């Protein structure tokens, strides 16, 4: 089923009722050479359950740091964060994360890499774990490559495998830190469409950090534009366009140019 049919189909899942994110006064600093270097200051942000939000900004504005804080990987901060009204105080199975590098273990097949994310899930039977792994592989359209080794996968296929691994625990929130940044333009375009397909199927809340403004406009419900030194929210830009979107659409281009003007001037 293509994306157009998925959107029009009555079988398309409704927007999730879980995965709501709330940030209040989030502030992060580093101690460097005996002085305090502020990285993020006073971040207030609300993200609805099932929403797709992208974060854009110049290098050094704290985009990836913000994602690490939301994931619970970095707990040294001021301010408060909640996922579904539960304070974020560390990592959780309710939150998955995908990095720029797929980080698949080279000594494991794709199937074993994805199953690794379910280790320690005593609440799941072996049958349920097998089902989840199979469903995750099917979702990223790698059905025929479950027994392939990472060296046998292209960069784009490996990154789809990383997305499957992040989704196998069925998280309410998926964080993506430049997941397509190391890929060639053609593969990147293909995976943007694949990510859109996955989001429309899963309806998990997704937060994407990207340097590619067109990618952000193509995928997002809203775009958070960051200022740097220290990182602050400059403004939040809504993208009131239906899916699927055509990057050549004048409406897409107008939003893109507006954001680029914010980032680099006229």
TrEMBL record:
NADP among keywords: no
Alphabetized InterPro entries for the sequence: AAA+_ATPase (IPR003593), ABC_transporter-like_ATP-bd (IPR003439), ABC_transporter_ATP-bind (IPR050166), P-loop_NTPase (IPR027417)
Family: Belongs to the ABC transporter superfamily.
Keyword Ligase: no
Keywords of this entry: ATP-binding, Nucleotide-binding, Transport
The ABC transporter domain, residue ranges: 21-255
Xref: Pfam families: ABC_tran
Annotated GO MF terms: ATP binding
Lineage: Bacteria, Pseudomonadati, Pseudomonadota, Alphaproteobacteria, Acetobacterales
Name of protein: ABC transporter ATP-binding protein
Matches recorded under Gene3D superfamilies: P-loop containing nucleotide triphosphate hydrolases (3.40.50.300)
Biological source species: Acetobacter suratthaniensis
């Amino acid at each position: 089923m293509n994306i157009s049919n998925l959107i029009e189909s009555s079988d398309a899942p409704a927007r999730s009722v879980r995965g709501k994110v709330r940030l209040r006064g989030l502030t992060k600093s580093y101690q460097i050479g005996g002085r305090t270097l502020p990285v993020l200051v006073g971040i207030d942000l609300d993200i609805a359950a099932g929403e797709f939000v992208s974060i854009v900004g110049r290098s050094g504005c704290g985009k990836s740091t913000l994602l690490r804080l939301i994931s619970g990987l970095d707990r040294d901060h001021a301010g408060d964060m909640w996922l579904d009204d539960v304070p974020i105080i560390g990592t959780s199975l309710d939150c998955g994360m995908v990095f720029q590098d797929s980080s698949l273990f080279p000594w494991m097949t794709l199937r074993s890499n994805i199953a690794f994310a379910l280790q320690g899930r005593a609440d799941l039977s072996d049958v349920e774990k097998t089902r989840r792994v199979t469903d995750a592989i099917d979702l990223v359209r790698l059905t025929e490559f479950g027994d392939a080794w990472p060296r046998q996968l292209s960069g784009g296929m490996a990154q789809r495998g990383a997305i499957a691994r992040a989704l196998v625990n069925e998280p309410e929130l998926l964080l993506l830190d430049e997941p397509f940044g190391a890929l060639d333009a053609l593969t990147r375009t293909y995976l943007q469409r694949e990510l859109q397909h996955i989001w429309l199927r899963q309806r998990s809340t997704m937060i994407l950090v990207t340097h590619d403004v067109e990618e952000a406009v193509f995928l997002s419900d809203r775009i958070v534009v960051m200022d740097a030194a220290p990182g602050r929210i400059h403004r939040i830009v809504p993208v009131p366009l239906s899916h699927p979107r055509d990057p050549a659409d004048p409406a897409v281009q107008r939003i893109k140019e507006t954001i680029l003007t914010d980032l680099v001037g006229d």
